[in-house]
Design a protein that fits this description.
alpha/beta, Peroxisomal Thiolase, Chain A, domain 1, 4-stranded mixed beta sheet, binds oxa(dethia)-CoA
């Protein structure tokens, strides 16, 4: 039997690190300039975890804030879904570490991680929406969180200037009867041709032949920026067309477009292609850099904090990332 439950975002909470790294700080570490970074990416500064800080603590804090915001008690949560490609460790999952921090009131809520890189939040939203719509789960904590400072190679100027850290959580559940808010459509996709172009490598048994091997045992990111750029500007429109068709809507019904914050030039090119006015496009890359899966809920957080997001507004969300992966969603606030 098909259920008619619509999933809503019942609350949102975000925790970003206090530690700010400016472009000028980076210019003292690698051969770069503030002018190059701003012109090529739009980034002026980013927030990074400090040594010794754990992503699980950020995730738990974001989750508590989201639950407070939703007015939902912890005891009602029946699934924690952590979207990340930079967990504190591979096993046990970050979601279980967050479960541990949130405490026994959670009972036996399920917990697992989902890795779709920068598309992680939208992959998570897609999955959670189906789980709620079918009545399988009722209260899902969807947490996007990344620790790039743990995986960046600060000798590689083409990647270390791009990324930032943080955590953002939403509480998802069925909307109240009669409400027209909630998720109207989601779509996700992947293109395995992209596997070569963004990789989080790890010296060790899986990749002893890697041409980039550093042999210091640390994971590190490598990216073919130009190739990713081409894919991103193309898939942006493809994903939005797909999700708008599913929602039965057109671009002029969208109040705000919240794109993954990868590069200001990618966002502008994508927005131009779909003819959406710049003032309706959320851009906060200047302050946070590319926070991967976190960038879309961070965009929602900023819109709310600025008082621009009103009940009844329609949001289009779109992301792409390593894999390649992409995702999009239409949500009425
Ligand atoms: O979230 C998804 C993951 N990633 C992305 O979405 C990234 C997509 N790609 C990009 O954002 C852009 O490709 C970058 C910002 C990474 C690079 O910008 P670009 O305009 O594509 O530069 P480029 O790679 O074509 O490099 C141009 C020049 C090169 O020098 P030469 O060969 O022309 O002499 C680079 O070595 O800029 C040089 N360069 C830098 N110079 C100063 C590369 N990084 C830097 C730097 N500072 N940080």
């Amino acid at each position: 039997m098909t259920s008619t439950l619509r999933t809503g975002i019942l609350g949102i909470g975000t925790r970003i690190p206090d530690n700010v790294l400016t472009n000028d700080d980076l210019a003292r570490i690698v051969d770069t300039t503030d002018e190059w970074i701003v012109t090529r990416t739009g980034i002026r500064e980013r927030r990074l975890l400090s040594p010794g800080e754990l992503l699980a603590d950020y995730g738990a804090e974001a989750a508590r804030r989201a639950l407070d915001n939703a007015g939902v008690p912890l005891s009602e949560v029946d699934l924690i879904l952590a979207c990340t490609y930079t967990p504190d460790r591979l096993c046990p999952s970050l979601a279980c570490d967050i479960h541990h921090r949130l405490g026994p009131e959670l009972g036996s809520a399920a917990a697992f991680d989902l890795n779709a890189a920068c598309s992680g939040f939208l992959y998570g939203l897609h999955l959670a929406d189906k789980l709620i719509a079918t009545g399988t789960h009722r209260r899902i904590l969807l947490i996007a969180l990344e620790n790039h400072s743990g995986i960046l190679d600060f000798t590689d100027r083409s990647t270390c200037i791009l990324f930032g850290d943080g955590a953002s959580a939403v509480v998802l559940g069925p909307v109240e009867d009669g409400s027209d808010s909630g998720i109207y459509a989601t779509c996700i996709g992947a293109d395995g041709e992209g596997t070569a172009h963004i990789q989080l490598l790890h010296d060790g048994p899986m990749h002893p032949e890697s041409p980039h091997a550093r042999n210091d045992g640390q994971p590190y990111l490598r990216m073919n920026g130009r190739e990713v750029f081409k894919y991103a500007t193309r898939v942006f429109g493809v994903a939005l067309d797909e999700v708008l068709a599913l929602a039965g809507m057109s671009t002029d019904q969208i109040d705000f477009l919240i794109p993954h914050q990868a590069n200001m030039r990618i966002i502008r090119a994508g927005a131009e292609r779909i003819h959406i006015a710049p003032e309706r496009v959320v851009m906060n890359i200047e302050r946070y850099g590319n926070t991967a899966s976190v960038s879309i809920p961070l965009g929602i957080t900023d819109l709310l904090a600025e008082g621009r997001l009103k009940k009844g507004d329609t949001l289009a969300l779109v992301a792409f990332g390593a894999g390649y992966t992409y995702g999009a969603a239409v949500v009425k606030w």
